[in-house]
C-alpha cells in the first residue's frame, strides 16, 4: 500500500508539472512515475479453475503468482488469462474432451469478471475496452487460447471462441496438434505436417476473419514461418524469448524474429527461467528439488518426476499438487536462506533478452510476458506483486518512458487494433 501511494503521489506531481525535471529524481522515483502512467500488460497468465470459485478466488491473496491483490501491489493492469488445453489424442474423443476443458476455462474467466469480482476486474475485447476499464479504476482481464487442439475439426469453433472473448490463439502446444507441428518436434525431428496442416491453414484464415491474433509461441519454426507468410494480419508470440541468447526450441531464432518484424507483429519476451538461461535454471532447480525431496521423505512421501505425475489419475494429481504446495511452503525458509549463495535467473538476465530483441527488430515489435502459474517467474519478478522491478531495470538500462510504455502494453494493443481492422475489412468483402 505504501509503495502504491508513493507511486501515485510522484506520478501526480510529475504529470501536473510540480516536478519539471525528472532527471533530478532517483532512478527508482523515475521508474515509479513511468510504471504508473504505462498500461502494464502481461500476455500470458495460466490459472486453475479451482481458484475461480466463490470461496477461493482471485479477490484473495492466494499462493497463485497472479491474483487481484498481487496485481494491485505490483501495478499490473492487464492480465491475459489463458484457456490452456494439454495435447492429447488426435481423434474425436480427444477433441471432445479438449473442447470441454476449454469451455470450463472460458466459464471460469467469465465467472470471475461477471459474478465474483465485477467491481474489481472486467473482461476487455479491444484496446478501447482496456483504456475505458482502467480509467474506471478496475483491473483488466483478457483471454488467450493456448493450443488450438479444442477446435477439433470444426472451424466454426474459431468464431465461438472469439464470441467468448478469445483475442489470441496458438495452433499447437507441447506435441503436434491436428492444426500444426509443435516446437517439441525439434528433439527427435519427427513432424506430423511439416508445418501447418491444411486444416490449420483454414483455421488461420478464420482467425484473420474474426480478429483473433495468431500466436506463434509453441508451434515449430516451419509452422511459424508459414503462419507469418499466410496471415493477412500481424501475429504475436505471446511468451517467447531469443534463441540466439539461449538455444531452446521454445525461443524464436533471428530468422523468425526478423520475419515477425516484417509481418508487423510483436514478440512478448517471456520471464521463464529455463528459456532465459537454462544452465542457471537447472542448477537452482536441482538444489530446490533436493530440499523439497528431503522434506517429503521425512513425511513418508516423495516428490514425483514428470513421468510419474503423468501416470496419476486426475484426482490423484490434484492431491499430489496439494501436497507439493504444502511442501513448498515448508521449504521456503530454507530456500530463501541459500538463494543468495546460488546464482539464479533474474530480472537482469530477462532484460538481456529484451535488449537483444529490441536491437535486432526494434522497440515497436517487443513486449513483455511472464507465463506466471504456468512455470514462469524469475528472481525479482516471481509474481505479479514484483512487476515494478522490470520497469526499474528497464529505466536502469536507459529505456525512456515512451519505450517502456510500448514494451509494457502499447505494442501489443497496436497489433490487436491492426488485427481487428483487418478482420473488419475481410468481413466487409465476404
Write out key terms for the chains shown.
single chain; 430 residues; TIM Barrel; 2 domains; six-stranded parallel β-sheet; three-stranded parallel β-sheet; globular
Descriptive account of the structure:
Mean pLDDT is 93; it is low at 1-5 and 13-20. The radius of gyration is 21 Å and the shape is globular. α7 links the parallel β5 and β6. It is α/β, with parallel strands linked by helices. α2 (27-37) packs across α15, α6 (156-163) packs parallel to α7 and α7 (198-210) crosses α16 (401-429). The longest helix is centred in the last third of the chain and has 29 residues, at 401-429. The strands form two sheets. Strands 1, 2, 3, 4, 5 and 6 form a six-stranded parallel β-sheet that branches. 50% of the residues lie in helices and 10% in strands. It has helices spanning 2-16, 27-37, 68-74, 92-116, 127-135, 156-163, 198-210, 221-230, 254-263, 273-276, 278-298, 306-310, 314-339, 347-361, 388-396, 401-429, and strands at residues 41-45, 78-84, 121-123, 139-146, 166-170, 213-215, 236-240, 266-270, 366-369. It has two domains: 40-277 and 345-429, Metal-dependent hydrolases (TIM Barrel, Alpha-Beta Barrel), CATH 3.20.20.140; 279-344, no CATH class.
Amino acid at each position: 500500500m505504501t509503495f502504491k501511494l508513493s507511486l501515485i503521489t510522484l506520478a501526480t506531481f510529475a504529470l501536473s508539472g510540480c516536478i519539471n525535471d525528472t532527471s533530478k529524481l532517483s532512478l527508482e522515483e523515475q521508474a515509479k512515475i513511468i510504471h504508473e502512467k504505462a498500461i502494464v500488460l502481461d500476455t500470458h497468465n495460466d490459472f486453475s479453475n479451482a481458484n475461480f470459485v466463490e470461496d477461493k478466488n482471485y479477490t484473495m491473496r492466494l499462493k497463485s503468482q497472479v491474483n487481484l491483490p498481487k496485481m494491485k501491489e505490483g501495478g499490473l493492469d492487464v492480465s491475459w488469462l489463458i484457456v490452456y488445453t494439454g495435447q492429447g489424442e488426435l481423434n474425436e474423443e480427444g477433441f471432445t474432451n479438449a473442447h470441454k476443458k476449454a469451455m470450463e476455462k472460458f466459464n471460469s474467466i467469465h465467472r470471475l469478471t461477471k459474478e465474483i469480482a465485477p467491481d474489481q476486474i472486467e473482461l476487455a475485447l479491444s484496446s478501447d475496452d482496456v483504456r475505458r476499464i482502467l480509467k474506471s479504476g478496475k483491473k483488466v482481464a483478457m483471454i488467450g487460447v493456448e493450443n488450438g487442439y479444442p477446435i477439433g475439426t470444426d472451424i466454426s469453433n474459431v468464431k465461438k471462441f472469439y464470441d467468448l472473448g478469445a483475442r489470441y490463439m496458438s495452433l499447437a502446444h507441447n506435441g503436434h496438434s491436428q492444426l500444426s507441428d509443435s516446437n517439441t518436434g525439434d528433439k527427435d525431428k519427427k513432424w506430423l505436417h511439416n508445418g501447418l496442416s491444411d486444416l490449420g491453414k483454414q483455421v488461420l484464415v478464420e482467425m484473420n476473419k474474426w480478429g483473433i491474433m495468431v500466436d506463434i509461441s509453441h508451434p515449430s519454426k516451419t509452422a511459424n514461418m508459414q503462419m507469418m507468410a499466410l496471415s493477412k494480419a500481424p501475429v504475436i508470440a505471446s511468451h517467447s524469448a531469443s534463441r540466439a541468447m539461449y538455444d531452446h526450441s521454445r525461443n524464436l531464432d533471428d530468422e523468425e524474429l526478423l520475419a515477425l518484424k516484417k509481418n508487423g507483429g510483436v514478440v512478448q519476451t517471456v520471464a521463464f527461467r529455463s528459456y532465459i538461461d537454462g544452465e542457471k535454471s537447472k542448477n537452482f532447480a536441482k538444489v530446490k528439488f533436493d530440499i523439497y525431496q528431503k522434506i517429503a521423505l521425512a513425511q513418508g512421501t516423495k516428490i514425483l518426476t514428470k513421468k510419474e505425475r503423468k501416470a496419476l489419475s486426475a484426482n490423484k494429481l490434484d492431491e499430489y499438487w496439494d501436497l507439493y504446495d504444502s511442501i513448498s511452503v515448508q521449504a521456503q525458509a530454507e530456500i530463501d536462506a541459500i538463494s543468495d549463495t546460488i546464482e539464479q535467473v533474474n530480472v537482469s538476465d530477462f532484460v538481456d533478452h529484451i535488449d537483444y530483441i529490441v536491437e535486432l527488430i526494434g522497440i515497436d515489435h517487443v513486449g513483455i510476458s511472464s507465463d506466471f502459474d504456468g512455470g514462469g517467474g524469475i528472481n525479482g519478478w516471481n509474481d505479479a506483486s514484483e512487476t515494478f522491478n522490470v520497469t526499474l531495470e528497464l529505466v536502469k538500462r536507459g529505456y525512456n518512458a515512451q519505450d517502456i510504455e510500448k514494451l509494457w502494453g502499447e505494442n501489443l494493443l497496436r497489433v490487436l487494433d491492426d488485427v481487428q481492422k483487418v478482420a473488419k475489412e475481410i468481413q466487409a468483402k465476404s
